[in-house]
Inverse folding.
C-alpha cells in the first residue's frame, strides 16, 4: 500500500513537472507534436479498452435485456432523463 502512495505521488510530481515544462514551450511545432503524441496514445488506450464480444455473448446480453423487460426491471427513457437531471 505504501508503494502505491509513493508511485501515485511520483506520477503527480511528474505531471506537474511536465506541465511546467510545457508552459515554457514557445515553439508551435513542438506543441503540435506533443498534441499528436497525446492523441495517438489516447486512441491506443481506447482501442485496448474496447474488446469485441462473441456472438454468444451478444445473444446472452439480448436475452438478459428481454428478461429484465419481462420482469419490470426497466425504466422509460423519460424516467431516465429525469434521473440524470437530478444527478447534476
Amino acid at each position: 500500500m505504501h508503494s502505491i502512495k509513493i508511485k501515485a505521488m511520483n506520477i503527480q510530481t511528474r505531471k506537474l513537472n511536465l506541465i511546467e515544462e510545457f508552459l515554457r514551450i514557445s515553439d508551435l511545432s513542438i506543441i503540435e507534436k506533443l498534441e499528436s503524441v497525446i492523441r495517438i496514445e489516447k486512441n491506443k488506450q481506447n482501442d485496448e479498452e474496447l474488446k469485441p464480444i462473441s456472438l454468444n455473448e451478444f445473444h446472452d446480453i439480448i436475452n438478459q435485456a428481454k428478461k429484465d423487460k419481462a420482469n419490470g426491471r426497466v425504466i422509460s427513457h423519460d424516467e431516465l432523463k429525469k434521473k440524470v437531471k437530478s444527478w447534476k
In short: The CA atoms of residues 52 and 58 lie 10 Å apart.
